[in-house]
């Protein structure tokens, strides 16, 4: 894990407009492939109650939790609607040689 960067998927494994859940150590991370080609990463667990966000709905740069419909901005992690009032952690992402890498702090 040089400089904290970890390969989490092949870019081809995350279709545009879709999300993929990955586990790095004890972290559940959601990888998003936004329209236009950008990749983003946040916590994959809703900050309101335990639910995997990648099992929810992704639309217009937001992810909606499948449990209670809380919405989050994929780029910033900001909680956009109740019942969530705590933002998600956001991770740096880069694509190199067809691989998606996420920077894991610490």
Biggest β-sheet: strands ordered side by side in the sheet: 2-3-4-8
Task: State the separation between the terminal residues, measured CA to CA.
Answer: 11 Å
Shape: globular
Q: What share of the residues lie within helices?
A: under 10%
In what range is the share of β-strand residues?
A: 35-45%
List the helices and strands and how they pair.
Elements: E1 5-10, E2 18-24, E3 27-33, E4 39-43, E5 57-59, E6 62-64, E7 71-73, E8 90-91, E9 93-96, E10 99-103
Antiparallel strand pairs: 1-10, 2-3, 3-4, 4-8, 5-6, 6-7, 9-10
Describe the structure.
The chain is mainly beta. It has a single domain, classed as Rieske [2Fe-2S] iron-sulphur domain (Rieske Iron-sulfur Protein, 3-layer Sandwich). Helices cover 0% and strands 42% of the residues. The chain contains no helices and ten strands. It has strands spanning 5-10, 18-24, 27-33, 39-43, 57-59, 62-64, 71-73, 90-91, 93-96, 99-103. The protein has a four-stranded antiparallel β-sheet with strand order 2-3-4-8, with no helix packed on it. A three-stranded antiparallel β-sheet has the order 1-10-9, with no helix packed on it. Strands 5-6-7 form a three-stranded antiparallel β-sheet, with no helix packed on it. The protein is globular, with a radius of gyration of 13 Å. The mean pLDDT is 95.
Provide a quick synopsis of the model.
With 106 residues, the protein is mostly beta strands. It has no helices and 10 strands.
């Amino acid at each position: 894990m040089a400089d904290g960067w970890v390969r989490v998927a092949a870019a081809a494994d995350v279709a545009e407009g879709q999300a993929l859940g990955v586990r790095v150590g004890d972290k559940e991370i959601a990888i998003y492939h936004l329209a236009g080609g950008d990749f983003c990463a946040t916590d994959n667990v809703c900050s309101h109650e335990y639910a995997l966000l990648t099992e929810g709905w992704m639309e217009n740069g937001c992810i909606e939790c499948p449990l209670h419909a809380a919405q989050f901005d994929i780029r910033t992690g900001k909680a956009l609607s109740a019942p969530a009032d705590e933002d998600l952690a956001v991770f740096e992402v880069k694509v190199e040689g067809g691989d998606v890498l996420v920077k894991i702090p610490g």
